[in-house]
Design brief:
The complex is a heterodimer of chains A (about 325) and B (about 775). Chain A has about 325 residues and is α+β, with helices and mostly antiparallel strands. Chain A folds into three domains: about 50 residues, 2-Layer Sandwich (Uridine Diphospho-n-acetylenolpyruvylglucosamine Reductase, domain 2), CATH 3.30.43.10; about 120 residues, Uridine Diphospho-n-acetylenolpyruvylglucosamine Reductase, domain 3 (2-Layer Sandwich), CATH 3.30.465; about 110 residues, Enolase-like, domain 1. In chain A, about 30% of the residues lie in helices and about 20% in strands. Chain A contains twelve helices and twelve strands. Chain B is α+β, with helices and mostly antiparallel strands and about 775 residues long. Among the domains of chain B are: about 210 residues, Aldehyde Oxidoreductase, domain 4 (2-Layer Sandwich), CATH 3.30.365; about 200 residues, Aldehyde Oxidoreductase, domain 3; about 140 residues, Aldehyde oxidase/xanthine dehydrogenase, molybdopterin binding domain (Aldehyde Oxidoreductase, domain 4, 2-Layer Sandwich). Chain B has a seven-stranded mixed β-sheet with strand order 3-5-1-12-9-10-11. Chain B has a five-stranded mixed β-sheet with strand order 7-15-14-13-8, sandwiched between helices. In chain B, helix 11 packs parallel to helix 12, helix 12 runs parallel beside helix 19 and helix 18 crosses helix 19. At the A-B interface, helix 8 and helix 12 of A face helix 5 and helix 20 of B.
Chain lengths: ~325, ~775
């Protein structure tokens, strides 16, 4: 069986201790919360930290509650808790569904929302054992020089694979990051970068404390659609998160569509807001937004299902998502 | 009465059989152990004193020359006891002996450890045995192997083409063997036909993927004798193979089998088992080998196949001729190639009356993980081919596929082929129950068109069906079982038929209890142990209920006669006047406990009888090994497919097998259910993917087994029970029938919905769009 390599396990008692340890240990350390992605990747040699700093049991990372500014979700809450939470299920069914669609019940019991938001990017040439990667000569994401998907590419093309991040970005969520220097609040969408290796702009010494879904998102309709081969277990090979606000006259006040698994970062479809906001939502407009979604999707031959299929489905899923929010569902 | 099957399996939403016996209502005898974690599998067995741990180094290449192996540093690594590779064989001949085959003379082609080259990714190159697993794995990293990569070939058709890389140079070709089956006059058959059609279907290679890894064992070679704890389906056969390999007498090898965590054909001796045995002999200590997941995936696989048929039909729909060409891809070594090719050849005609037949099969080497036997060996691939062919031909003739099948299917009593029983099942009943199971009248949409999928609903409804036929309880010689009754009246059954998940031990306890009419709680069923020399070919080929069941039944009948003789001797009367009724010996108006009679034997007196079952001998010039009965199934499916995206929604599925008589209804039904669930995997997801010269999805995450959400909510499975089988109490083997019908039923339903046909497995949304011409 694959065995874990040796490492130091550090169990801080507070977030302060955690950020200090992270700052002190530098690049040799990694954070671990649920460990559902970290430990298997250590067994396969994709992650090779000397130290693991555990975020399990940190009180500061717990809690889901209503606040003046919106809904606060502690980064250490499990995906099961998020998917079952009363307020989330009521106001943000897209988030509950996205959390519930991750992997399997056992992994959702362990895995956290914070871990999922910053889950490692994925690629068929990277998510393999050391033994396998060694035989193909490794790729640039770990131990190698070139991209095996597109050998001419100067950057890594691994795929953004979080189910919850597109939903949170479409809801305009903010992330609260803590380091030894203090706390900062930033739009979650700004924390992603379209690079399979450096896919996050979160600083190496920062810990995600929690996520805030702003007040104005309450009452907006939202939905998440996920493409994968099987009914559960699989990572998304396309995810479409859509949020929409329609007034009594049927006019769209707010619209946002965010895609996952079509690039190394969640992709915002700008046409959702530019074309829909201020207008009455029609099937024709939705089709135009759906076309735009497909256009900015660049799936490659490094995940399950054919890349042309995933691109085509970006259009279909965007259309389905928007039609369902606009009440124009045509049973498709 | 309560339908226990439904309650226990939790899969069906419709009811199966209404009336149950009290045996059906009892949980399986292994259930408590398994649910509470008490059941011991190979990795749960305690270490023997001084047990050492082995770790394996596998080839990262699918095809390469081994230039050099340097294990100097590994040998010096802390805790290391020994290294095994081609340089450290200590005179052991590495060549593995293939089991003799009824129809072919096979040349041995595989070494248990790579010698000159590696022929598939995952081939065993070296092992380290150390005081603990971590030390062994650390040392493994210090072995330096220099390879010279060679071009690999992963497609059997390409492997046969001129200029293809040759795997076994001494053979000069990748063609391993050819097989054929024929009757009638094929040219005459096509002359009689009004129309002739050609159809072609392919199936990929796949993995068995049992929950328990493949390739683990605990080996103890001591004083010239081998003790082996092995998760296997056939301990008696394996024992003699290990003895032959080591050059010792068969009775010097003792194989014991703990509970086995699933097999589906994969739990056979593999090179890693032989390596563990060699290492134990080398260090004089027991060796435990626990394969990694990646190694488990690379132990064996299922054969990919190409099925090409030419079929002749009269204007009224009567079949006149069938000519099939098969290419069977066995991977890097023979392994199960002969059986897979032969089974495919003798069964590619389906279950129909075909007066003029010719089937040819070629078995071919490729650089894939070697393919062994898999649940319904050679039958999954050919059923996919012939059942889609029948549907397609019927539709092209303008005949409803259900009517076409009714017209051509073999009926009870029909002659089938030389050396086989006549048809002994009722397909018309099977088909009717299958279509009724999904609430369908069986009529297909003869003019489906995806053009109607316009702006409205893009989801198109389709229904389809498929039949299957497999030889039941084939070959294997005699099966023996022993029944012992002690002075307390407890009956012990000994046998060599492993409990591999399917419920063999429970089955034997029911057969013994019913035969003797003693309470089931008085029956003990032992685990297999070859020290008790009771030959049996193994739990495969649907032979356990039939062959071992009959052997247990026979042993218990004999035991009963012995008991009656003894009772007559002690208490009077004639043996034939005695009866056993609910555990008590009865004669005229009197009754006695069993203990009361047996204790007259004195001391540790017991009654002991060996029973057996002999399979029908193979007839001369027959392509079919002796078999006891035929094993059919029928399935129907109701689905929706999206004409825009190719997405499938399975609405209802139904499958009916012929059990003759289900001896423990929940277990039998679990076989039907489990087979169909595996079938959904084969139909929709599973295939091995080779890219960049390597196996890309040889792990539990990327190799996609179906999950519960992929199984339709409405899942109806049932069995015909006419008590007409040759097994105990009218039973038949049927565990390999439900797996094969899923894929063709889906393929036919997709056609019913859209008017296009996917001809390669798995059936994916991308392929559906491709055949729709939408890419």
């Amino acid at each position: 069986m694959l065995r874990l390599p040796e490492f130091n396990y550090i169990q801080p008692r507070s977030l302060k201790q955690a950020t200090k340890a992270l700052a002190d240990l530098g690049a040799d350390a990694m954070l671990v919360a649920g460990g559902t992605d970290v430990y298997p990747k250590m067994k396969r040699g994709q992650f090779t930290p000397r130290h693991l700093i555990s975020l399990r049991g940190l009180r500061e990372l717990k809690g889901i509650r209503d606040s003046k500014e919106g809904l606060w979700i502690g980064a250490g809450e499990s995906l099961t808790t998020v998917s079952n939470h009363r307020l989330i299920a009521k106001h943000f069914p897209a988030l509950a569904h996205a959390a519930e669609s991750v992997s399997t019940p056992q992994l959702r019991n362990m895995g956290t929302i914070g871990g999922n938001v910053f889950v490692d990017t994925r690629c068929n040439y990277y998510d393999q054992t050391f033994f396998w990667r060694q035989a193909v000569g490794f790729c640039m994401k770990k131990d190698g020089q070139i991209c095996l998907v597109a050998p001419g590419s100067s950057k890594c093309l691994a795929i953004a694979s979080s189910d919850t991040s597109p939903v949170l970005v479409s809801l305009g969520a903010e992330a609260v990051l803590v380091s030894r220097q203090g706390e900062r609040r930033v739009k979650l969408g700004e924390l992603y970068r379209d690079d399979g290796i450096d896919y996050s702009t979160k600083a190496k010494d920062e810990v995600l404390k929690g996520l805030l879904i702003p007040k104005e998102a309450l009452g907006r309709r939202n939905v998440y659609l996920k493409l994968r081969r099987r009914g559960s277990f699989d990572f998304p090979i396309l995810g479409v998160a859509a949020t929409m606000d329609i007034d009594e006259r049927g006019e769209c006040r707010y619209a946002s569509v965010v895609l996952t698994a079509v690039a190394s970062a969640p992709k915002i479809v700008p046409e959702a807001s530019t074309l829909l906001q201020g207008k009455k939502v029609t099937k024709e407009l939705i089709d135009t937004v759906a076309d735009a979604a497909a256009k900015i999707s660049h799936p490659l031959d490094n995940a399950d299902m054919d890349y042309w299929y995933r691109k085509r489905m970006a259009k279909v899923y965007t259309r389905r998502a928007l039609e369902s929010l606009a009440g124009l569902d045509s049973s498709a | 009465m309560l339908d226990v099957s439904e309650r226990r399996t939790g899969l069906s939403t419709l009811t199966g059989r209404q009336v149950v016996t009290h045996f059906d209502a009892q949980p399986r005898i292994d259930l408590r152990d398994k649910v509470t974690g008490q059941a011991q599998y190979i990795e749960d067995l305690p270490d023997l004193p001084l047990t050492a741990y082995g770790a394996t180094l596998l080839s990262p290449y699918s095809h390469a020359k081994i230039v050099s192996i340097d294990s100097t540093d590994a040998e010096k690594s802390p805790g290391v006891l020994a290294v095994l590779d081609r340089e450290h064989l200590d005179g052991q001949n590495p060549r593995l002996k293939l089991a003799p085959h009824e129809h072919f003379k096979l040349g041995d082609d595989q070494d248990f450890i790579a010698i000159d080259k590696v022929r598939f990714e995952g081939e065993l190159v070296a092992l380290v045995v150390a005081e603990d697993l971590r030390s062994a794995q650390r040392a493994l990293e210090k072995i330096r192997v220099e390879y010279e990569p060679l071009p690999p070939v992963f497609d059997a058709v390409e492997a046969l083409a001129p200029g293809a890389p040759i795997l076994h140079e001494e053979r000069g070709t990748n063609l391993l063997l050819e097989d054929s089956l024929a009757w009638g006059d094929i040219d005459e058959g096509f002359r009689q036909a009004d129309r002739v059609f050609e159809e072609s279907y392919t199936s990929p290679s796949m993995f068995h993927h049992p929950m328990e890894h493949v390739g683990g064992c605990l080996a103890q070679y001591v004083n010239g004798e081998l003790n082996l704890w092995l998760p296997t389906s056939s301990p008696m056969r394996d024992g003699s193979e290990f003895a032959h390999f080591l050059g010792i007498e068969a009775d010097k090898v003792r194989v014991r089998v703990p509970y086995v965590g699933g097999g589906f054909g994969s739990k056979i001796p593999t090179p890693s088992h032989y390596a563990a045995v060699v290492l134990s002999r080398k260090i004089g200590r027991p060796v435990r080998l626990i394969p990694s997941e990646e190694h488990s995936f690379r132990q064996n696989s299922r054969h990919a196949e190409v099925f090409k048929a030419k079929i002749g039909v009269k204007a009224d729909g009567t079949l006149t001729a069938l000519d099939v060409d098969l290419i069977v891809d066995t991977g890097a070594y023979t392994t199960g190639g002969a059986t897979a090719a032969h089974n495919s050849v003798i069964s590619a005609w389906g279950c129909y009356r075909i007066p003029h037949l010719r089937i040819k099969g070629r078995c071919v080497y490729t650089n894939k993980v070697p393919a062994g036997h898999t649940r319904a060996t050679g039958k999954i691939q050919t059923t996919w081919g012939i059942e889609c062919t029948m549907d397609s031909v019927a539709r092209q003739m303008g005949i409803d596929p259900y009517e076409f099948r009714k017209k051509n299917v073999l009926l009870r009593g029909d002659f089938v082929a030389k050396g086989t029983p006549s048809m002994d099942t009722d397909y018309l009943d099977l088909m009717q129950q299958a279509v009724e199971g999904i609430g369908w009248d069986g009529r297909s949409n003869l003019a489906p068109s995806n053009l109607s999928a316009t702006a409205g609903s893009r989801w198109m409804r389709g229904r389809g069906m498929a039949l299957s036929l497999r030889h039941g309880s084939q070959g294997g010689g005699r099966a023996y079982a022993m029944a012992t009754m002690d002075a307390r009246g407890t009956v012990t059954i000994q046998h060599n038929a492993p409990e591999i998940g399917q419920g063999t031990h429970n089955l034997f306890s029911i057969i013994a209890a019913r035969t003797l009419d003693v309470p089931q709680k008085e029956i003990r069923v032992k685990s297999p142990d070859t020290a008790v020399h009771l030959p049996f070919a193994g739990v495969s080929a649907q032979r356990t209920t039939m062959q071992m069941g009959n052997a247990v039944h026979n042993a218990c009948e004999k035991l009963k006669q012995e008991l009656f003789s003894l009772a007559a001797q002690v208490k009077g009367g004639k043996p034939e006047e005695w009866r056993l009724i609910q555990g008590r010996l009865c004669w005229a108006e009197t009754s006695f406990s069993i203990a009361e009679i047996i204790k007259v034997l004195g001391g540790s007196g017991v009654l002991k009888c060996v029973g057996y079952h002999s399979v029908r001998p193979m007839e001369k010039e027959s392509a079919f090994a002796g078999m006891d009965h035929w094993a059919p199934s029928a399935a129907a499916i109701d689905l929706e497919v999206n004409a825009e995206t190719g997405e499938l929604r399975i609405l209802r599925y139904s499958v009916i097998a012929d059990a003759g008589k289900a001896l423990h209804y929940p277990s039998a039904k679990a076989q039907v259910d489990g087979g169909a669930v595996m079938g959904f995997g084969h139909a929709l997801f599973e295939e091995t993917i080779y890219e960049e010269g390597q196996l890309q999805n040889g792990d539990a995450f990327q190799y996609r087994l179906p999950v519960m959400k992929d199984i339709p909510e409405v899942f109806y499975s049932s069995m015909l029970e006419k008590e007409d089988g040759p097994g105990p109490f009218g039973s038949k083997g049927m565990s390999q029938t439900s797996i094969v019908t899923v894929a063709p039923a889906i393929g036919n339903a997709v056609y019913d919905a859209l008017g296009v046909r996917v001809r390669s497995l798995p059936i994916t949304p991308e392929k559906i769009l491709r055949v729709l011409g939408k890419i």
